Amino acid sequence: MDMGILAQHLFNGLMLGMVYAMIAVGFSLFFGVLDVIKFSHGDVVSVGAFAALGGASAIGLLVDMPGLSLLFGLLAAIAVGGLAGVVIGGTLVLPLRNAPPVNVLLVTLMAGTILREAIRLGVPNGGNPKPFPVLLPQWQITAGSFSIGFDSVLILIAGIGIILATHLLITRTRIGLAIRAVAQDVDVARLAGIDFRRTVLGTFALGSALASVAGLMLGLYYREVNFSMGLVLGVIGFAAAVVGGLGSLLGPILGGFLFAFVQTLVTIVLPTASAYKDVVAFGVVIALIGLFPTGLIAERSSERV
Amino acid sequence: MRSTNLDAAIATGAPPQARSLPGTAAAILVPLAAFGALAGLLQVHEQWETGLLVLAFLAALVLLDRSRAGRSLAEACRTQSGIASTSAVLAALALLWTFREDHYSLLMVATVALYAVAGVGLNIQMAFGGIANFAAAAFFSIGAYTAAVLAGHTGLPHLLVLAAGGVVSALIGVVMLLPVLRTRGHYVALVTIAFGVLLRTLLEVNDTFGGPQGMKIPGFAPFGSDFGDVATIAGFDVSFYLPYALAAAALFALAFLAGRMLERSWVGIAMDAVRTDEIAASAFGLSPARWKATAFLTGNVLIGVAGALYGMMNGFVNPNGAGFGESLIMLSIIVLGGLGNFWGAIVAGAVIIILPEKLQSIQEYRLLIFAVVVIAILRFRPGGILPRPLRTLGRQQGGAS
């Protein structure tokens, strides 16, 4: 195969892996603090993408400054996505903390449906794919037969930066310490004076904002957003988080890149059968969970009987 | 007062409530009223009528749960389940006969019954075995595809085709056993979700089973004559969906009996024990893997059989039916109905399948309303519409068990 196309595929795989990782980190964070799966997470990605679209378009109508539009799009995505996370977390997930896990799963799935339908019905012509404005400089970087947009490189770098920043936030700051403390032992964390509710809602805001920004990046990269894009992304993000190990931070990142790697590999090795990429990727997920039932990087836990 | 009764029942082994004439009357009337409401739902055309019916249903639910009279009605149905079931069977037959010429209503009823059969299977997996199966629709479709292949391309008798649907569904379930048994909770959920997505995508991109268009399935012809050709029964004009609805109802009755027998036998107790506390159960010599596998595969058989008959009734099957959304609908039915309660699957099935059809004019908002209703029920009534009654262990007398 042509080296240029190969590199293109690999770059695309990296990009997807990063987006998956950003979504998976949210699943893992929520599971860490509350031991729940918040399945509306995938739809928060679409909410973020549409919020960014709205914010950027609004600025775009006033002044023709792509940079300012991008900034406002980013802020809108973070604000709306984070808010969605806090509202769902506070009204649906926290009150159902002691209900059977499947109830929480169903309730959040339905919350996701509400978000999805709200976009479809609330945004003018929301049922159809929407073009995303071009907000980044359109320079091309060419090396032989390999050609890549400067904007894509920027998105990739920004994504890696965001993931690193999240890592630092969790491991180096007081907020991160509180999140880790609640994840380890709620009661002891409370005894140490940590506000449980605030920490949990903060985690929801953080994870959902990450997913929202992932939505914005997808919009910038593919130049199109779609109200139902979140459903599959949610399933993939969840799969990546579980394969990597729920509750850890590195695990979901690993899982996200692994999933994208398998998809890309199938596309490269079997160009004629690239439709099978999801079949293979989910097959690998099932096999990996069979082999490593608690994920590649297991959450340290001991079971007392 | 109820709870002291129950405590006494557990302590002494006496039935919670002796038979009484009003109790018997209640056990007869409650199922009648429920099927009457279903008939009403099938009959109404105007939006406001549907709305009124929904309000009445919610009011009845609240009354049944919150008022003393309502609670004793529910208790009566529970203690005299034999009488209540008989009454329900007769009411169901009367309902089917009333709508004998109405294609659409019969199709709805048959669909609800078949989803309820799958619901019994799903209940065995989830409520008894504790395995969250998010791929129910995938196994349902496997049953339908099996029917398409066997009934369309071989001369196998159709009753065997139904059975084969269940067997193939269970066999494919065997592939999933290792990851399902090794994992717990959310991890199991992911295994089944991944399987559902995988199967659907595979059916779509692979042309062996018809690709995105799916396959045609010949009509159900168990005794040589195709159900689709039936036009009269005993001199009455009937819709060809009537035999399907009857078969679906019969299948539900069989699944119900099988599930109930399973629940009441030592198998059901073993499954309950394993689900409630794996470690304690294995300390008593019960193998968690064995009972979880039993629950998973038994459930798959029922889901597959239901899928096979559903496919034959519809005449076709395509990959859309295997999707995650469809699995969610099945899961919502049993969680809404009340995990572990087989009648609940019928009630919730009627709400989830028939109600949206009756709200056509607000088609656009259907999913939204559906989601809000499910959230409301789970938030305020976590046990579902008809929660599973507590198992009363101990000696029980007469037919009350």
Automatic annotation (TrEMBL), chain A:
UniProt entry keywords in alphabetical sequence: Amino-acid transport, Cell inner membrane, Cell membrane, Membrane, Transmembrane, Transmembrane helix, Transport
**What family is this?**
Belongs to the binding-protein-dependent transport system permease family. LivHM subfamily.
Q: Which GO terms describe its cellular component?
A: plasma membrane
Q: Which Pfam families match?
A: BPD_transp_2
Q: What is this protein called?
A: Branched-chain amino acid ABC transporter permease
Could you give a GO molecular-function term held by this entry?
A: L-valine transmembrane transporter activity
Q: What is its main location?
A: membrane
Supply one GO BP term: D-alanine transmembrane transport
> Which positions, given as ranges, span the membrane?
12-37, 44-63, 69-94, 139-170, 200-221, 227-246, 253-273, 279-298
The membrane topology of this protein is: Multi-pass membrane protein
Q: What is the lineage of its organism?
A: Bacteria, Pseudomonadati, Pseudomonadota, Alphaproteobacteria, Hyphomicrobiales
Tell me the compartments it is located in: Cell membrane
TrEMBL record, chain B:
* UniProt KW keywords: Cell membrane, Membrane, Transmembrane, Transmembrane helix
- The record's principal subcellular location, in a coarse class, is membrane
Q: Name one GO molecular function term.
A: branched-chain amino acid transmembrane transporter activity
Q: Where are the transmembrane segments?
A: 21-42, 48-64, 76-97, 103-124, 131-153, 159-178, 185-203, 241-262, 295-317, 329-355, 367-386
Membrane topology, as annotated: Multi-pass membrane protein
One Gene Ontology cellular component annotation held by this UniProt entry: plasma membrane
Pfam families, per the entry: BPD_transp_2
Q: Where in the cell is it found?
A: Cell membrane
InterPro entries (alphabetical): ABC_transp_permease, LivM-like
Q: What is this protein called?
A: Branched-chain amino acid ABC transporter permease
What broad taxonomic lineage does this protein's source fall under? Bacteria, Pseudomonadati, Pseudomonadota, Alphaproteobacteria, Hyphomicrobiales
